Each structure stands twice: as C-alpha cells, then as structure tokens.
C-alpha cells in the first residue's frame, strides 16, 4: 500500500520547470489511483502523524479540502513493514526572514505559488508606477534547483512576452544566483561547475560565490558581508533536511531530521522500519553518509525491493553498496552532466 498526502505526483527534479510554467503539471503528473490500478498496488490518501511500533499501527491525520473542511477523518493503518520515502525539504538553517520572505520549491503547490507570484510581478512591471526597482530582479539562493531555476527564468520571460502576457522580456530581468560555497555545484566536478557557470553568465545571470545570506527581507537579500541585493522575488534552494515530524516518531534521527538506518536500509531502532532517499541517513564508510542524490535514491529503491522479498523469505538482507560515483546531471536549458565521486 502507498500512503501519500497528495492525489498526484510530480517528479521533484522537474519542479523548477513547473515553477516557471515550462512544465504543464496536468500533462506530466502521475495520478496515484490510476497508477495503482495499472501496477497492482493499493493507494490511500493521508498524512502520517505517528507510529506505534509496538502495535505496528500508523496514525493518519484527517484529510481536508482547500477550504479546510474535513473529507476523511483521522484513521489508523496496521502494517507488517513500513518504508519511509518522504524525500526532503529546503533547509533555511534558521536564517532570519527566509521563511517569511522567500519562496521554496519543494512541492507542486510551492512551485505553483512561485509561478503566480512571478507572473503577477511581471505584470506589475508593465506599469512603471508599480515597479519596486528599475529592473525586475529575482534573487535565488543556492543548490542545483537554484541553478536550474535561474536558467529556466529566461525561457519563461521569453514565453510570457511571446504570448503577450507581459511586455517584459529576458533583457529586462536580472537574476542573481548566490552560493555559499567557493563554486557552483560543489558536489560535482570543477569542470561541470565551470561549464554551468559559463553558460549561466552567458544568459545574463549574476553569480555570487562564497556568499552566505544572513537575512532575507521582503524585497532584499543581505549577505554575510553586509551587501544588500535589492530584489522583487526571493527563492531559497540552499541545503536540504528531512521533514521535521520524523523526529517525533521515536526513531533515531540526525540533525537534518533524517532517519538513521543501517546499510540494509533498516532503521537502527526497528528492523521492520525501512527508509531510503533524502529522508534516510545511510552510512557510507566511517565518516560519511550516502549523499542526497536522485541517483542514490533510485539505487536504494532497487535494493530495498530485493531486501523486502529476502525478509519475507527469511533470507539475509543485502547491504547498500559503496559505489565509486553517481552520475549527476542538470536538466533544462543547461543540459550538463557529470559525476559525483563518493
């Protein structure tokens, strides 16, 4: 059985395309009810609020509609084994003002909220009296999603201009991409990092490396050095953490809220609880863990499927291998690829 709070699924690495309107969610999302029927599994809609590991019971919150009216009451589901595959959310590291004044793009709902704000901002700039600044400026903080979004914004401005939605085109917007590390995409090779930097700069993106943000305001980003970057829209895509409610389930978690698992992907506390992907902290050597990469999550999913069968058959479980590298890529207009060395 699959449990998810949403009725449909959009692959997270494509959310930046949904945010800019390049992707049509109705065409690219997966409907769980249809998918479950076609692939022989059961689906229930709901959000996990607690786990009773002694009784093997999952506690689910009520399901509400857009107006806050209850559609389904709180429920309980029994289980033999449970797999946590909840992914991650952006980590603002407690930076003042980020939660209030920055967009996050961790879900389709957040991506669509950014899209509405982006279009409304473009529309306002057609009237000089409503402009915040001389040039429409978007500030994006960090990570691969930020890199991809920066590139897509110029395509979005061309599309909006071509369809007559706004008179603003790519020559009238300014995009600032800020990265705290010494270079973009520090998890990839320097060659890939430099290629991406060159391509973004050719599009018109202003890149700030070695630049941490100490505060976000409604129309401003303030760096650790005190520089103030005036903006119309702020986006935060720096760092990840697992959903905070995982720390309330009675399972051992790390400082990023990730469930600590053995290399078999079983929780260190309970062999009947598995976790994979960004919400799991899987050891990789003595002092490191498997990085939060889609490629790693895909490999973990394949291993976990085998391990569940082995568990049911009473066979020994396999450990997650220690690969030499994962192929990593940047989608969209940049179309770059490289290897992440473990």
Automatic annotation (TrEMBL):
InterPro entries for this protein: FAD/NAD-bd_sf, FAD/NAD-binding_dom, NDH-2
Molecular-function annotations in GO: NADH dehydrogenase (ubiquinone) activity; NADH dehydrogenase activity
Keyword Ligase: no
Organism of this sequence: Vreelandella sulfidaeris
Span of domain FAD/NAD(P)-binding: 11-301
Annotated protein name in UniProt: FAD/NAD(P)-binding domain-containing protein
UniProt keyword list: FAD, Flavoprotein, NAD, Oxidoreductase
Signal peptide (UniProt feature, chain positions): none
Annotated PANTHER family: NADH DEHYDROGENASE, TYPE II NADH:QUINONE OXIDOREDUCTASE
